[in-house]
C-alpha cells in the first residue's frame, strides 16, 4: 500500500472532522462513511415529518452529498427515485412510481397478516419495479428502516428481494453506564471501564463533548438500542444530585440523544429523600417519602418529558435500600414505580442482592442462591411498571455460569435479563472475546426443559411487554470507543440481539465486519472477513479454555479482576470459592449434600444439575465438588481437562495473533496496530493464566500431565 492509498484508507475509516476543535478524531465504529456508499449513490425520496424524520433526512443528505446521489423531502415533484422512505399516514404524492412502491409495501403487510401493524419502531421493506420502499407507522420506524438499508448495502435494491416486516421483539433495549460524575477513589471515572474516561462526565462536571455523545447516539440507534442510563448504579453523593440540582446536566444529554430515539434513564439512590430532601427516613411506606419522590419525579418530567425512568441498586454491596426499614424489595420498587406511573416511566430494580460479608468457613451460605431467595417469593407483588433486572447468571458475569433460575421463577413479574458488554471477567477489552455466542446460548436456554419456552420468550413477554434486555456498556473516550477495536462488535451484537433475541450471532458478526471494514475500503475484503471470523467466532470459548475451568469461576485477582489469582477470592467476604483441596475441586450446590441451589431450577434442570453424572461438563465444578480423577462426558479426567484446555487456549491465542499479522496493509494501520498490541498482551496474559492454573492444580493434586508438558 503506497502513501496515497494509506491516506485514502484512513479517511474511509475515521470521522473526517474532529468532534470538537480540541479533540482528536474518533473511529466511526460500524458507521464509517463508506458503509453509506450504496445508499448515497442513489436517488432518495423521504416522505413524512417529525424530529426523527429530520434525523433520517440528515443521514441521507450527508450520504448523497458524499457519493453523488440526490435526496428530496416531500412535498416534492414527480421525480424518479430508487428509494422511498415514507410514513404510512403521510399524504399521497404526485409520483406514480413512489405510490406504487408504497402500495407494494402495504400489500406486503396485508399478506404478512397481523392487521398490518408496525408499531412505534417497526418498518416494512418492499420492492416495486425499480423502487425500494421503506414504510413505517412512526418516525422511529423510519430511522431503523434507514439503518437497515445501510446494513443491506446493494442488497436493499435487489429486484428479487422479497418483502419483509421488521419489528423489535423487545420494547426496551437498554444500556447501563457505570460512569461516575466525580472520580471514584478506587473505581475511577468509569467503574469497570476499560476504554478510558466517560463520554458524559469528567472530574465532577459534564464532559461537554456533545458531538461525541451525538455520535454515540447514532451508533446505538443503528444497532437498535433505545434507552440508556447515564450514571453508575453505585450512586455516590455527586451522582445523587443528578436527580435534583444537577438535573440540567442529564437533560442536556437527553436533548442530544432524543433525535436518535434514545430515552435517558437515571440511576438513583434509594436514600435520596434523606440525602437530598433532608427527610429523617427513606422508608417506602412513609407518606412523606412518597410525596417527596412524587414531587422529585414530576420535576424530572417537567424538564425531560420523555425521561425513561429510574435504575436502582438497593441493599447490595453497601447501597441503601428498604431492608433498613424492615421492608422488602417489592415495597421499595413500588414506591418509585408509583411516582413514575403518571408519566409513563419505569423503574429497573436490580436483583443483584446478596450478603457480601460472608464467612468463608461457612459452606451453607451460597451467593448463587441469594437473588432467588430474595425475589422469587415476591412474584406478583411488583407494580406493572417495575422491571426486575436479573443478571444472566446467579453469581456475577463469570465466563461460564448456568442461567439464573430467577429468570424462570417470576411469571407474574416483568423480568429483564442483564448482560455485561464491558469485559470485566472476559479480558477487559485487552483480550479478543466475542460475546455474541455466549449471550445467544443464554437467550436460547429452555429453563423448563427441551422444547419449552426460552429465556428470550421470558424477557419478550406477551405482545413484547416483557422486561427486555439490559447490558452494562463498554464505551469510553478512547479513540476506538471500546479500547480494543474488535470489542466494538460486542456493543453492536448486544443491540442486534436485543432487537431480535433469536438472531444468529455469527450472522450479526458478519454484519459488523461488513460495516466496519467495508469491502471497498479493504485491500482484500474476503481475507479480512475470513480472518476476523477465524479470530472472533470461537474467541469466548478460547478465553474460557485458558482461564477458570468447568464453570468454577472467580480465579481472578481481587479488585481489578484482571489476570489469574487462583485463591484471590477463596478466603474473602464475597462468597466466591472453588474449594480446591488435595482430593478434588468444585462447589457442592446439590440438594442431597450441598447448598441446595439446584433445587431453585424447574424440575428438568434441577434433576440434570443435581448429579455429577448428568451435569454438563462445562458447569460441573459450579455444581459439584469432584475428585481430580472424575471422568467427564468428554472422556477426559477433570485434572487432564484442566491441563489440556489451558495449553490449547494459549495455542489458539497465538494462532489468533499470527492470523491477524496476515492483515498487515489490508486495513487502516491505526486499527491494525491497536489490535496487534492487544493480541501481544493477550498472548502474554493467557500464558500466565495457563502456567498459574496448571501449576496450582498440579501442586494440589500431585497428578502429572499425561503428555509430559512443562508445569512448574
TrEMBL record:
<dbReference type="Pfam" id="PF07477">
    <property type="entry name" value="Glyco_hydro_67C"/>
</dbReference>
<keyword id="KW-0119">Carbohydrate metabolism</keyword>
<dbReference type="InterPro" id="IPR037054">
    <property type="entry name" value="A-glucoronidase_C_sf"/>
</dbReference>
<dbReference type="Pfam" id="PF07488">
    <property type="entry name" value="Glyco_hydro_67M"/>
</dbReference>
<dbReference type="InterPro" id="IPR011100">
    <property type="entry name" value="Glyco_hydro_67_cat"/>
</dbReference>
<dbReference type="InterPro" id="IPR011099">
    <property type="entry name" value="Glyco_hydro_67_C"/>
</dbReference>
<comment type="similarity">
    <text>Belongs to the glycosyl hydrolase 67 family.</text>
</comment>
<dbReference type="InterPro" id="IPR029018">
    <property type="entry name" value="Hex-like_dom2"/>
</dbReference>
<keyword id="KW-0378">Hydrolase</keyword>
<dbReference type="InterPro" id="IPR011395">
    <property type="entry name" value="Glyco_hydro_67_aGlcAse"/>
</dbReference>
<protein>
    <submittedName>
        <fullName>Alpha-glucuronidase</fullName>
    </submittedName>
</protein>
<feature type="domain" description="Glycosyl hydrolase family 67 C-terminal">
    <location>
        <begin position="482"/>
        <end position="709"/>
    </location>
</feature>
<keyword id="KW-0624">Polysaccharide degradation</keyword>
<dbReference type="InterPro" id="IPR017853">
    <property type="entry name" value="GH"/>
</dbReference>
<feature type="domain" description="Glycosyl hydrolase family 67 catalytic">
    <location>
        <begin position="165"/>
        <end position="481"/>
    </location>
</feature>
<keyword id="KW-0326">Glycosidase</keyword>
<keyword id="KW-0858">Xylan degradation</keyword>
